[in-house]
Write a structure and sequence with these properties.
Layout: H1 2-15, E1 19-24, E2 27-32, E3 35-43, E4 46-52, H2 57-62, E5 67-69, E6 77-82, H3 85-103
Antiparallel strand pairs: 1-2, 2-3, 3-4, 4-6, 5-6
Helix pairs in contact: 1-3
């Protein structure tokens, strides 16, 4: 299931204008231009996604059960743990927001 989720996320990112996937330290990195807006990998039964969000979206996202602060405490980054297709669908708007925020900076 997590590999299917990763594939679904890859398809979504490729549909965003300028969204590109590249290897990123053994993970999949999602870029717009030269800027990283998320990276992800499969860890057992979980799709782990690291992404960055502007305030107030970051605070709102961190209130959700699947999210937690980035393990290395990178500024404005969080980790999302996705275990099913509904979870991915719930997070796609936030990931698109990250893409737009990085694209427009």
């Amino acid at each position: 299931m997590p590999y299917t989720l990763a594939r679904e996320l890859e398809i979504a990112i490729r549909e965003w204008d300028g969204g590109v996937l590249r290897p990123f330290f053994g993970w999949r990195g999602a870029f717009v231009g030269r800027r990283l807006f998320c990276c992800f990998w499969v860890d057992g039964n979980i799709l782990r996604v690291w992404t960055k969000l502007p305030e107030p979206h970051l605070s709102t996202a961190l209130d959700r059960p699947a999210a937690r602060p980035h393990p290395f405490h990178f500024r404005q980054w969080l980790e999302i743990q996705v275990t099913n297709g509904d979870g991915l669908a719930d997070w796609l708007p936030d990931l698109h927001r990250a893409y737009e925020w990085v694209r427009d900076r």
